């Protein structure tokens, strides 16, 4: 659901088996608590290019216990001081943020070109 004018995920249907969600280049600024309720098994979430400005907006992702990879590239929140450290602290289940792990190692390419889940 890339670049389709989404401003909210509130109308997202319940997708308990969904593991990967791409909602980049929309106008989403918050309301991410919906994801934990409707997509509890997400392992990969791409929110790049959205209107996420505050770390508090992504706090709801703490409830996504299987989330391994989060992409917030081109969101205002990435300009925050200690952005990477803060997100990894807030979301300890994360392995990759914006394509890199905590030690700044890039996501290894898997055979299909997608990050490992």
Automatic annotation (TrEMBL):
Coarse class of the protein's main subcellular location: cytoplasm
Localization per record: Cytoplasm; Nucleus
Keywords: Chaperone, Chromatin regulator, Cytoplasm, Leucine-rich repeat, Nucleus, Repeat
InterPro entries for this protein: AN32, Leu-rich_rpt, LRR_dom_sf
Cross-referenced Gene3D superfamilies: Ribonuclease Inhibitor
PROSITE patterns: LRR (PS51450)
Pfam families: LRR_9 (PF14580)
Described function: Histone chaperone that specifically mediates the genome-wide removal of histone H2A.Z/H2AZ1 from the nucleosome: removes H2A.Z/H2AZ1 from its normal sites of deposition, especially from enhancer and insulator regions. Not involved in deposition of H2A.Z/H2AZ1 in the nucleosome. May stabilize the evicted H2A.Z/H2AZ1-H2B dimer, thus shifting the equilibrium towards dissociation and the off-chromatin state. Inhibits activity of protein phosphatase 2A (PP2A). Does not inhibit protein phosphatase 1. May play a role in cerebellar development and synaptogenesis.
Family according to the record: Belongs to the ANP32 family.
Protein name: Acidic leucine-rich nuclear phosphoprotein 32 family member
Higher taxonomy: Eukaryota, Metazoa, Chordata, Craniata, Vertebrata
């Amino acid at each position: 659901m890339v670049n389709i004018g989404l401003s909210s995920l509130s109308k997202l249907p319940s997708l308990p088996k969904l593991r990967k969600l791409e909602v980049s280049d929309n106008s989403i600024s918050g309301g991410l608590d919906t994801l934990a309720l409707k997509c509890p098994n997400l392992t990969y979430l791409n929110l790049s290019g959205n209107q996420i400005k505050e770390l508090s907006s992504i706090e709801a992702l703490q409830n996504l216990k299987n989330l391994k990879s989060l992409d917030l590239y081109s969101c205002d929140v990435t300009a925050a001081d200690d952005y990477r450290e803060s997100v990894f602290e807030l979301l300890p289940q994360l392995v990759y943020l914006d394509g890199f792990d905590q030690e700044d190692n890039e996501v290894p390419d898997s055979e299909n070109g997608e990050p490992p889940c």
